Amino acid sequence: MHELLHWAALGRLPIVMADVNRAMGPGWSIWTDQNDSLSQRDTGWMQFYCESNQEVLDTIIQAFRISEQVLLPSMVVLDAFFLSHTSEPVDIPEAAQVDAYLPRYEARYKLNLQDPYAFGGLTGPDHYFEFRYKMQKAMEQAIEVTRAADAEFQRHFGRGYGLMERYRCDDADLVLVVSGTIASTTRDVVDEMRARGKKIGLLKMRMFRPFPAEDFRAAVRQARKLAVLDRNICVGVGGIFHQEITSVMYGHRDDLAIFGFVCGLGGRDVTPEVIRETIEYAETHDRPEEQIIWIGVKR
């Protein structure tokens, strides 16, 4: 169904889709990694990566507001099994509260059974280029729209997430960049390392498409090293978050060492020991020795 994701985005449809992010076959898996959603990163859908079921619920509500403003579909990504096959308490707002936050959507173009039309799907070179241009401009606009939607959500419900979460980053020499449920474990390890006197921080990526490049650069401006923990792999290149981060930092910070770790594929646990191993590697190397630093693989 890959091509229809392009159709939804180029059709400027404000769809919100929950993506239970599982490892792709073969063989069949109900466990998590991020290749499911990240293989669709160029389809024109906005993507939000969630750490908890509360964040999933809240992000779905926010995503309707964002999508309806910029007319692009949203993918709300949650880790398979860890969030989809377990339970945790969440605060479910009353419908009236959500209605107060989420304005009623009035589509500009609607199906009308009393006045039906048929449209051809073929788009010639005279128009297609401009359609893509407008999609890109809408993506760029979505960064500020998301920031405003999250701030308004916090005023209504007392919870906010931002485009990303900076945790103990202000004076950090080494920042661990993570997404999804790995963030919960990493936060505990950061606290443990801080108690030992090590200047380590956490940056949790929530918005991946559009990629908030300026916010990211500001968030890591004090760091000397970044350790990117990817629960995914672009086979033939490496971790996908690592690729994106290397790209947005290119030409901005020649003094910044960016380490790309791949871990937790197919739902393998990313334990505190795994995160400590990434920290030890980054601390003991000035630069990465390999494009992909494998953590936890059975060789």
Fold and architecture overview:
This protein is an alpha/beta fold and 299 residues long. The chain contains nine helices and ten strands. The protein has a six-stranded mixed β-sheet with strand order 4-6-5-8-9-10, sandwiched between helices. The protein has a four-stranded mixed β-sheet with strand order 1-3-2-7. Strand 2, helix 3 (53-70) and strand 3 form a beta-alpha-beta unit. The two termini are 35 Å apart. The mean pLDDT is 96.
pLDDT average, as an integer?
Answer: 96
How far do the termini sit from each other? 35 Å
How many helices does DSSP assign?
A: 9
Q: Tell the overall outline.
A: globular
Query: Rg from C-alpha positions?
Result: 20 Å
Oligomer: single chain
Helicity level: 25-40%
List the main descriptive attributes of the protein structure presented here.
299 residues, alpha/beta, 4-stranded mixed beta sheet, 10 strands, 38% helix, globular
Helix and strand arrangement:
Elements: H1 2-10, E1 16-21, H2 35-38, E2 46-49, H3 53-70, E3 74-79, H4 95-101, H5 125-157, E4 164-167, E5 174-178, H6 182-195, E6 200-205, E7 207-209, H7 213-219, E8 225-230, H8 240-249, E9 257-262, H9 272-284, E10 293-294
Helix pairs in contact: 3-5
